[in-house]
Batch of 4 targets.
Target 1
Amino acid sequence: MKKQILLAALLALLCSLPAARADDPDLSGAKKLGWKLTLQAWTMNYMNGDKKNSTTYKALQAAHDLGIHYLECYPGQQLDDDAKAKWGPEMTEDQIKAVLAKAKELDVEIIDTGVIGIPGKESDARKFFDWIKKVGVTTVVTESEEKTLPMIDKVAGEYGLKIALHDHPKPKSRYWDPEYTYTQIKDLKNVGYCADVGHWKRSGLVPAEVLKKHGDRVVSSHFKDLKDGHDVVWGSGDSAAAQMLTELKDKQFKGPIAIEFEYKWDMPTLARCVKFFADTSNELAK
């Protein structure tokens, strides 16, 4: 009888553990370089072309299954099967506790969020950053108005946060031009680029050249490799993925590098991106 009870307890313990992965990626090189491979949860909108997969909980599970330990959440994403529960400052205390518990269970940290608006009024920005601290985020990706950036920089510094200005492609975002963006951030301590290298390429720029010039001000990256204008496995496109990572290393970048697919994908596709990143970063870390 005791043996049966022990076996039942052991089975229950095993069932409570996160699902094992067949092959965990070797991200030791990335760790040495100070890089954190992240999954941008926006990617879930394109899983097999089916947006019903886009929930924060499913993004956490996908990160875990890929051997990725970090997640970037985007505002308005449905948290779970409850359509009323969404990622953002309006989350209840219970929702925050539940999503953080799920993240811990899967050995994934939610370290950044975006692209998200930051209130332009200081008192409201402080309330926003209070929520940011509660959910454990350390980097906020935004396209906030230029006139608000000095205030945001000051308050973010008080909260120990980094702000990353994102570049949607022209003409959608005024920050598509890295030269213009630099004029807005050059005197700020806590605001830099979110280098969405795919959007830079869509704007007619050469991402590796931008990183070579401005990589020292990059706070985070939405990393992509494009072919015919859409996302493909890293290292198989026209964006010089290995060179972009080399430029980030040369500029001593440290921070999140997110897989963000905005084209249909499946898990083997993202796993190949993880492998490329692991292999390249291990080589660069030697």
Target 2
Amino acid sequence: MKRFFGLVLLGCSVIACRDAPLPASSTGPLPQADAAPPWAPKAKAPTPPQGMVWVPEGALIAGTPPDRLPRIADEEMPGEQVVLHGFFIDIFAYPNEEGAIPQTGTTHTQAQSLCADRRKRLCTELEWERACKGPHNSIYEYGDRYRSDACLTGRAPRMLPSGYRPACRSEFGARDMHGSVWEWTQSRWGRGTEAELFTLRGGNAAAGELVGRCANAMARPPETISSQVGFRCCMGKLNTTEVSLHIERGVPLEQRGKVERGIARGLDAILPAAVRQTLAGYGAWRISSVWNWHPIGNVQLVVGGGCAGYAPARRCGVVVADLTGGAPALAAWVWAGHYPPAARVSKDPRRLWVYGGDQMSHFRQAVLFEWGRVRVGEVERNVRPGAD
């Protein structure tokens, strides 16, 4: 499936606003987009106002590339390069005082007004992300490897004094961007909805590895008042580039009427070696059913079910493949016993049930799509196909 994405560029041409996308690797660091040629003169950074830091002009690798996980495909740009000019950002969330508790309970309009009272403005969400990722486009403000202790993420939100987490700091000097309040930005939620929603960044939640990323975001109506929502201010010329994603959702689970040979060969080629060895003892594995699975927007997985051998002596199972890179890539294998497998999705399309059975009972097993990863749950016995 093709992924659709884009940028709304206001006040400048595409050529003037960005370069071509940079390549990304899941095993190495992202390119150092801020690196200048050796002959280029080094610009002198302006002196920041008190309580602010300077974020220089440079390239933001916005969102998360498709080959990096965790990732939310229908909420994040796919690692596209965006050049932003320099700006100032507050070191801490409002009132931007070390040792103070961040202010919460403000609507989006109130947050804008409080920034304006200080001759500042709300940051755009991409300015916020740039300040968090730093010059090396790190996944987290402190680096590419998740550390729950750095920002105290992955736990129930606590309103700690600003500066309590010294390791929660970006290379540009912005602090406590995660582990504390969610922060209003002035950016609308450009992710395939007409509703009046604005983007928040930062915050905390139990899923710390996911929420603690600089690319993570959340949408709320502008009149939202919450004890977990605050804001921080920026200053300087506004960067007008915004996130704009086209979301393609598709039917959550759709069975293909015919098993194409090309799909069958592709799924057979990615079987794990241990699975292939077991099936070989029963004969050739034949795929009898194929489904398209859309657990979230802009994601398509292919599910192929089949058996090796003939009843009653046969082994059956399901292979789940990710089509992100074009060719099928193994996401999961699920044994279905002696019965040709059936597949259904629950009310939440991120949960796929695989039904099978053996001499003991009928059973089912959950296949869970979580932040770009696929995880197989425990076997539940005495459950027939069609049960919710």
Target 3
Amino acid sequence: MNKFLIWLSRKLNYPLISPEIMQISLTYRCNLKCKMCSIKELLPQTEELSTEKIHHIIDEAKNYGIKEILFTGGEPFLRKDVFDLCRYTHSKGLRSIITTNGVLIDNDIAEDIVNSKINHIHFSLDGLEETNDFFRGKGTFKKTIDAISILNRKRNDNCFSTGIACTVMDKNVRELYDMVILADELNVDVINFQPLVKDNANFLDKNLPLYWVGKDMISVLDEQISGIKRYKAKHITIYEEPSLKSLVKYYQGSLTSKEWLCFGGFKTAFICYS
């Protein structure tokens, strides 16, 4: 029923049900300068919601019936209070999720993650080693893989889950199937593939960005997605919302709003400093 009401809210452009997820941008600061990301251009980076304000927002989320708090950035682990925020979220009976590049996670931070009752850690990884390091900086692939391995040693079935988000781009389109295999071998719980946008702080920008999957690579993208669809996973879940096949139409420029609805504001409420 909830999924239907969210879908109907989007169709009517009027909320018939509370959002399920609240996404809170903790900071614009980041320890990396990824080539396809525009968050680093947002200024001033020092403008951040206070700990007290975020506690208040979490209280409001609880009252609205929201079930999950998604902490994003920038890089959330640059906030010294991030573990306090996750513990506070847990105390309210809500799930907490953090998106991260993973580079800062060592044994000490992994212990803090366990103790803070975080429910899910979602890592950004945009290809195999050479490709990911092209986009995110030399050595970032190994650091992210090491972080996942450290957390695997710390967690148990009742602790937290892990995931990988991969932005589909021209330089990694031949590696999408291999990314699923890698994630499965790493014992990651879920992987999702997301579309590239020119400005991830302004989704209305219609200009084609750098690293766009061009017409000459559409057949490769289609083949990779077909391979992923056939893959027999040992552990990992391939998250599709919407279908991965929609990515082909997206990069062809033929995807319609009826085929890929935006549920921002209906399924997910977005909160940032401004």
Target 4
Amino acid sequence: MRPMTAQGLCLLALLVAATSAQADQWTKTYAVSGTPELRMETGDGNLHVSRSEHREIAVRVETRNWTIGEGGLRVEERQNGDRVEVFLHFPHRVHFSFGIDRPKRVDIWVQVPRDANLDLHTADGSIELEGIRGDLRLDTSDGHVEADDVDGNVRIHTGDGHVRVRGRFDILEVRSGDGRVEATALAGSKLAAGWSLTTADGSMELVVPKDLAADVEIHTGDGHVDTDLPITIAGRWGGHDLRGRLNGGGPPLRLRSGDGSIYLRTGGTSGSL
């Protein structure tokens, strides 16, 4: 028998690593009656939130090369009426690995009723959300945030990643430490309080209905300002700044980019781009 070549040994090692990859899962469903509140925190992991047709909150945690339970990922959860809290705790011990390092991954899948108040935090991972109406707080230290078909008060923060959000807003606050920001405000959106969109490094585009009323304040440290809206200019309009009133003025609409151009555009009043 011919000895196995170095290439063959490498392929065999990869096959063994793939077949020995560990997967684990944790699931729980919480019955609710009114408007539910969900608070979730995880040190690592990607959050995926969607709408459920049932009066319940369903949480599923899926891991790759993480065990759930003793010595691994620990799930702390509790429910008090319509308020549910789920915290994922990762082990702090140092682990030395020899040979092929198997990549670790955690995904948290959540379904909630259409009307729900959410407070979601991940230290390292993305947040994706669709079809929810309520008070929404989405925060990640490192990862992108994408929210579609949302309605109500939306507050988004990412330390490093892009933001894409689309919906009808009463309050809109977006902050990105490093990444582009794209926001689309649909028909019926209004400034119940001032809106603020900020990125330290990246371009920004905000699309609003034609009838949105606001006092507009736009500044970019390195980029240009572009708009197709009939803004009544207050003071000078420089290459990096714009101040004025939109549809007679209203609460402040503040757009800031440390390094990137800013585009303020109209999407009409029908809610379609």
